[in-house]
TrEMBL record:
Lineage: Bacteria, Bacillati, Bacillota, Bacilli, Bacillales
Name recorded for this polypeptide: Probable dual-specificity RNA methyltransferase RlmN
Biological processes, Gene Ontology terms: methylation
Xref: SUPFAM superfamilies: Radical SAM enzymes
One annotated GO molecular function: methyltransferase activity
Length: 365
């Protein structure tokens, strides 16, 4: 049986666990310092702990549960990691360089059941949720990679926008945030953490009521129910009207700005009338909302969608601006590698399946 990742515990949870097993709660701080400040990769590298405490931890937990399978590096500094989990599943994690610092995009599920037709993540259905430890370890793997380059760089921002729907794994996602924002650990402030959801209305309300305090992004991607239902199956369960009501609840409860993600698909949702309709939808929320326009990255050569032209993107942007809507165009990262989220994983799994089928044919000949 594989052991759970110790990264999945907050310092308070670890202290309680140690107390239950006959050790002082204060030893949790020593473990915490070893994990997040010294960044050890084995319990044997914690000499400040008593031997019996190290043995206990080794018997019940693992520090390293992810194995790097593939790494792609872009000319713009973006690095995409493909990690293999203990059960053999593959997940993606991405390091992006910005003027404001280094951002890591983490995955929360193995596959995705939301089924957005434009997204590579949904090409393969969800097989399971990731544990909070597996999500934290993605950040730690990237930080250890940066440590190895000896440039004194540190991960400063987190986006929970990788494979999967974070709000469909709400408990582990929440615990992940509590671990990484701890000031005695990675100390990534909540204002430097953004969680994205496709629009699970009840969870948006629960998120608003939580103490997480992070930024929220909504994958809107359409100005009306007709288009949104065609490209996002989630709209059948949570149409735009209850979604906007949940957004209003979040805005009133937190008084925090929200990001509305909008991927531009040629001749689908990128026309002038769509921009005007979107401006009217944002309407009175304009002071607490920013629309982030996303140029589409085709999933593969068989994709049913095409990328909007630069002229179309500019016109869409200008229409929103004229309606006093705060709007930006997402900077693209890793366009010379498998840029779309989930694309590298999907390609690797398809390649593995093809090799397996070829081997089976050869064995039967």
């Amino acid at each position: 049986m594989s052991k759970p990742s110790i990264y999945g515990l907050t310092v308070d949870q670890l202290a309680a666990w140690l107390a239950e097993h006959g050790h002082k709660k204060s030893r949790a701080q020593l473990v915490w310092e070893g994990l997040y400040r010294k960044r050890v990769t084995a319990f044997s590298e914690m000499p400040e702990l008593k031997p019996e405490c190290r043995t206990l931890l080794e018997e019940h937990f693992a520090i390293q549960t992810l194995e790097e399978h593939t790494r792609q590096e872009s000319a713009d500094g973006t690095i995409k990691f493909l990690f293999r989990l203990q059960d053999g599943n593959l997940i993606e994690t991405v390091l992006m360089r910005h003027k404001f610092g280094l951002s890591v995009c983490v995955t929360t599920q193995v596959g995705c059941n939301i089924g957005c037709s434009f997204c590579a993540s949904g090409l393969l259905s969800k097989s399971r949720d990731l544990t909070s430890g597996e999500i934290v370890e993605q950040v730690m793997k990237v930080q250890l990679f940066l440590d190895g380059r000896q440039n004194n760089e540190r991960v400063s921002h987190i986006v929970v926008m990788g494979i999967g729907e974070p709000f469909d794994n709400f408990e582990h996602m929440s615990n992940f945030i509590r671990v990484i924002r701890d000031p005695k650990g990675l100390a990534i402030g909540p204002r430097h953490i953004t969680v994205s959801t496709s629009g699970l209305v009840p969870k948006i309300r629960e998120f608003a009521d939580s103490d997480l305090g992070t930024n929220l992004a909504i994958s809107l991607h359409a100005p009306n129910n007709d288009i949104r239902t065609r490209i996002m199956k989630i709209n059948r369960a949570y149409p735009i009207e209850p979604l906007m009501e949940a957004i209003d609840y979040y805005l009133e409860k937190t008084n925090r700005r929200i990001t509305l993600e909008y991927i531009l698909l040629k001749d689908v949702n990128d026309q002038p009338e769509h921009a005007q309709e979107l401006a009217e939808l944002v309407g009175s929320r304009r002071n607490l909302a920013n629309v982030n326009l996303i140029p589409y990255n085709p999933v593969d050569e068989h994709s049913q969608y095409q990328r909007s032209s630069k002229e179309t993107i500019t016109a869409f942007y200008d229409t929103l601006k004229k309606n006093n809507i705060s709007v930006s165009v997402r900077l693209e990262h890793g366009t010379d590698i498998d840029a779309a989220c989930g694309q590298l994983r999907s390609k690797q799994i398809q390649s593995d399946r093809a090799r397996g089928a070829k081997a089976n044919r050869a064995a039967n000949e």
